[in-house]
Specification:
By secondary structure, this protein is of the alpha/beta class. The chain has 13 helices and 21 strands. Helix content is 28%, strand content 23%. Strands 5-6-4-14-15-16-13-19 form an 8-stranded mixed β-sheet. It binds flavin-adenine dinucleotide.
Length: 443
Amino acid sequence: MPGPYVTPVHGDAELPGEVDVVVIGGGIIGTSTALELVERGLRVALCEKGGIGKEQSSRNWGWVRISRRDPREVPLMAEALRLWPNLNERTGRETGYRRAGIIFTCATDRQYADHEKWNELLTPYQFESRMVSGNELRNLVPDVNMDLKGALYTAVDGRAEPQLAAPAIAEAARDRGAHVLTECAVRGIETSGGAVSGVVTERGAIACSAVVLAGGAWSNLFAGNMGIDFPQLKVMNSVLRTKPIEGGPEQAIWHSDFAIRKRRDGGYTIASGHENIVRIVPKSFRYARQFLPALRKEWRSLNLRFGLSFLDEARIPTRWSLNEPSPFEYNRVLDPVPNRRLSDAALGAAQRAFPALANAEIAQRWAGYIDVTPDAVPVISPIDKVPGFFLASGFSGHGFGIGPAAGKLMADIVTRTTPVVDAKDYRFSRFTDGSKIELVSGF
Ligand SMILES: Cc1cc2nc3c(=O)[nH]c(=O)nc-3n(C[C@H](O)[C@H](O)[C@H](O)COP(=O)(O)OP(=O)(O)OC[C@H]3O[C@@H](n4cnc5c(N)ncnc54)[C@H](O)[C@@H]3O)c2cc1C
């Protein structure tokens, strides 16, 4: 199943012998971190096991939103909303960013009250975000055919193109001197006196004093080989895109039966508004206790499946030495088979809601694994056990929009600069120091 077409980034032929920081993972988080670090004058190598942006960062819906954000992520997302509008100019490339608004529809009074609570969180920020009535919604979105109580409308929210953004940021990092290495899996980290002294890649070693792991769904495996237990699981979401359509909505719209977003090519990216598949794998049992609150809260949206993936995952080694091929070299791009039933149902519901979509033609389908933490809040943090090792992962289904700001925060932490926002809620140690782990928003 070929994933979505992603702007190709051709990796450098030469591996540098030494840099200041190695960033592992060429998704939106790794590329944004690399760009921030190189802009601050550091020597950076960005290592990606497959192609830049080919996993979650190109498969997502492309929503850039502060609405319905966990309060712990709101300050960082506010910074992301300041960074996105300048990203085309900063990278010298198209990222597809557009402030077109996002609408969360409310079919019932209960949903209305729920969305209203989320909206109140944004009051201190004075962003344009408000509850609208069903009638007002019809003015905002012409030709809508839904009987609704109202909606949460956040004008400051928007969209960007997942298939363009991470490649644009990676190329901009390279323009400023970063080494961009593709098909270059990092097998592990070397230490000297307990602190980071370099990485071993499948193409050789790179000396460095800092490593940022932005490995998306692979971070748990990588950290596990270092004896670091990062609680992280995967949830699958299936997506389709249509060919260009005239007259559909400009805003991205969420409804419990569908989520749709207009694309730069004039088509729509469409997915189920509420249903994700969770494959039961050995780690599901290992992290069952930590993820139980998330499971209780999200059980309606999680479709648990037991199948061959259990055996596939069980076969992946959890420990390896740095002089042998690592599991990352055997899977260049995570490319799960999409669930047609879920995305067809979403398309059907979207067609009923928007007559303009009635003759929509499906251009492509794909799926993506979302990496999630027990509280659905990322880790952007040093790992105290190994000085010089940093983790930026676990973005739990909301990492694309927040990505540029997460990269900035990670760079602040690596360079010991005053952080752009307080990073305490993103600390890794919350999973080990007995802190109460609370799921507020969801995946
Ligand atoms: C279907 C779907 C819809 C979503 N919708 C939205 C949305 O609308 N808005 C939003 O904000 N977020 C959304 N998300 C979430 C968002 O896509 C992710 O949170 C974000 O892309 C995570 O970025 P990342 O860089 O951490 O991970 P990834 O993009 O997965 O990148 C990690 C990279 O690390 C590489 N890697 C891993 N291990 C190694 C190694 N050892 N050596 C070298 N490279 C390695 C991988 O190959 C991969 O390319 C969605 C996700 C999915 C799947």
